[in-house]
Amino acid sequence: MRRKYLLATASGPWGDKSGTGNNRNGSSPIIVSPLLLQEFFTDNLWGTLPDSWQAALDGLNPPQLATLLLGMPGEGEVVRYRSVWPLTLLALKSTATSLAFTRTPGFHTPSEFLENPSQSSRLTAPFRKHVRPKKQHEIRRLGELVKKLSDLTGCTQVVDVGSGQGHLSRFMSLGLGLMVKSIEGDQRLVERAQHLDQELLQALKKEEKRNPQVVHTGPRHSPHHVVRWVDPTALCEELLLPLENPHQGGARLLLTGLHACGDLSVALLRHFCCCPEVVALASVGCCYMKLSDPGGYPLSEWVAGLPGYELPYRLREGACHAVEEYAERLQKAGPGLRTHCYRAALETVIRCAQPALRRPGVQGIPRVHELKIEEYVKRGLQRVGLDPHLPLNLAALQAHQAQENRVVAYFSLALLLAPLVETLILLDRLLYLQEQGFHAELLPIFSPELSPRNLVLVATKMPLGQAFSVLETEDS
């Protein structure tokens, strides 16, 4: 299905304490970001919201936040507002939802996991080994799309950039019969990928002996692995070399990357645009906070011409969060939701002990939901190099803990904007390709509950028309 992509810019009313739409003292609109959540208590983030928003959100339990704010009700749930929400909050919710790219693929649930949540029924056992369910879903869906795109554009070779342990490359080559070059900058990952290639080949041979009626047509080609760091700012000659007859021309390449991190996705776009031998692209990006500024965003002239197009780090980081997964956690209302509140309370203690130390990384503290808040704070202090035996104001910590639902509400508000920020980043990439005369579409191919970064940017140098729609459909 072809889509119309819209973008609106407007000055927001988020700085208005009354909720009427006027900013306090002409101040800048509030930016609600998950990255700021550590400062929820130190910077009184709840107090930065308009009074009318506070009244609407205060006291909502997690399932109500999922239903009313994020618009993701539980199965069979009837949506009922307990009070009249301010128009500014309703307008933000409606705008964020309507302007974001659709994230719903052409199927409601990943059908391959109905029988077993850990094993895709659409992959044979050898291709599932060492691969988590999320990755099973991703390599199958993207691999099948790449196969269709390769057939439509007459590609002779697929180049998988940022291939990691090679799960996608293996499925495309040994499962779908494509010629695949696999490029990865980490030597250890490449060695692991080569080991898994051999393990898979042996497993496939054993399977053929056990099931001789299953006939495999044609020779099997393992991926050709290359250790190479792709510089986003320079042309990578290795990426363009064909596997067969490297000194002869005529190769038609398809570039792909499954969650190619930060500027690596941008590098794929630039190689597609400037290299005539690259005729197709299928890119799924991630880690938007790692994009260079400038260089990685904006790419298109259209977005660069928008007033206020800038996306600070905190917004790009927020766009990487999993909205659907968090909504599911809200519906279950489990004790794990208190983690953000605990971390924000810890920040108040850190600031008192060492004011210059702000938002230090606290490596994962196991089973946070089973700890009392003072126990968490002591472990957190130790993790950041401070004395865990510092005297604690237990009453203050308990007062913070009593505001757990406010912290969850603020985080939910930030996640409401996450798909909209991702839309702007991906729209910029889409327009960048279209401005140069290429044909491009954004298609949701993964279940967002399994794989939050589920939009693939598909581009060709020849018009495909309605064939773009075929790419996102499930194979029978």
Describe this structure in words.
It is a single chain. The N terminus is likely disordered. The longest helix has 32 residues. Helix content is 41%, strand content 9%. The chain is globular and about 75 Å long. Helix 3 crosses helix 13 and helix 4 packs across helix 17. With 476 residues, it is of the alpha/beta class. It has a seven-stranded mixed sheet, sandwiched between helices. Helix 7 links the parallel strand 1 and strand 2.
Task: Summarize the entry for a quick read.
With 476 residues, this protein is of the alpha/beta class. It is built from 18 helices and 7 strands.
Question: Secondary-structure map with pairings?
Answer:
Blueprint: H1 45-48, H2 51-57, H3 62-69, H4 87-99, H5 125-128, H6 133-153, E1 157-161, H7 167-175, E2 180-184, H8 187-210, E3 224-227, H9 237-240, E4 253-261, H10 263-274, E5 278-286, H11 301-304, H12 313-318, H13 323-332, H14 339-353, H15 373-383, H16 394-401, H17 404-435, E6 439-444, E7 455-460, H18 467-471
Parallel strand pairs: 1-2, 1-4, 2-3, 4-5
Antiparallel strand pairs: 5-7, 6-7
Helix pairs in contact: 3-13, 3-17, 4-17, 6-7, 14-15
Comma- or semicolon-separated keywords:
476 residues, seven-stranded mixed beta sheet, alpha/beta
